[in-house]
Amino acid sequence: MIVWREKLVATGIHFLVTLTLAAIAAALIFLVWFPHQFATMIGGTELFMLVVGCDLALGPLLSLVIYSSRKSRRELVMDYSLVGAIQIAALVYGVFILAGTRPVYVSYTVDRLEVVTARDITDAELAAARRPEYATRSLTGPRWVATQVPQADNNDALLEGLKGNDVYLRPKFYVPYETQLAQIQAHAKPVSELTARKPASQPLFDAAMRSVKLPADRIRWLPVHHRLGFWTALIDKDDGKPVAYVNFDPY
């Protein structure tokens, strides 16, 4: 005879344990690796929900199948060890995939911001970094950088760019973000210019600007390019750093 009460209790406990592990993974992913709106911008949320959804659904459902008070302790330990190993392996694999898509640099390049993920930069390019702080992939959220190509490297940058290895993917050309503040301020434009050209965007930018605790005359915009397309960054013209992101392609 199946004792459903015991099975449901086992399923509930299994669900809570799985939920705790998922919460720990979520804290790492959304508070550290994908801060602010980067999870939505470059697709981290969907992959995380897929992995965790499978773990939350399949693990506890297996409890409903395998749990029986008539089994010995040894049998239950073996069954749950197998299920737990499969769940942890799936969660670790999902986190590993997300780790490759996490933003490690946001680079100001020419006239826009480029979101660079861990998988975008090769080990060879990291090894060629001229500053030690740019020779690693950040594990604590994206670092802000700008790019600057010395005249002696113009041909190298051009040839590699034709192959798709653009300067924002090459840490050897990274410089501190603030060193390019004058160029950032020169290229950043008033939001009113964008909304006049793209009237449909007005409600989006009005809502974003209401959430920003800055005077409107200090806010400018720059395009943000990422692996899925373009967004728009609202920046503080005084320091050139984004204060909000808008899901709108300014082009």
Structural class: alpha+beta
Helix content: 40-55%
Fraction in beta strands: 15-25%
Oligomer: single chain
Largest beta-sheet details: 8 strands, mixed
What is Rg?
24 Å
First-to-last CA distance: 66 Å
Number of domains: 3
- What's the overall geometry? elongated
Structural write-up:
The termini are far apart. A hairpin with a 5-residue loop joins β7 (229-236) and β8 (242-246). The model has no long low-confidence stretch (mean pLDDT 88). Strands 1, 2, 3, 4, 5, 6, 7 and 8 form an 8-stranded mixed sheet that branches. This protein has 9 helices and 8 strands. It folds into 3 domains: 4-101, no CATH class; 103-180, no CATH class; 188-251. It is elongated, with a radius of gyration of 24 Å. The protein has helices spanning 4-33, 38-42, 44-66, 73-101, 123-127, 154-162, 181-187, 191-197, 202-211, and strands at residues 103-109, 112-117, 143-147, 174-176, 189-190, 219-226, 229-236, 242-246. It is of the alpha+beta class. 50% of the residues lie in helices and 18% in strands.
In short:
It contains 9 helices and 8 strands. It has helices at 4-33, 38-42, 44-66, 73-101, 123-127, 154-162, 181-187, 191-197, 202-211; strands at residues 103-109, 112-117, 143-147, 174-176, 189-190, 219-226, 229-236, 242-246. Strands 1, 2, 3, 4, 5, 6, 7 and 8 form an 8-stranded mixed beta sheet that branches.
Which tags fit this structure?
251 residues, alpha+beta, eight-stranded mixed sheet, 9 helices, 8 strands
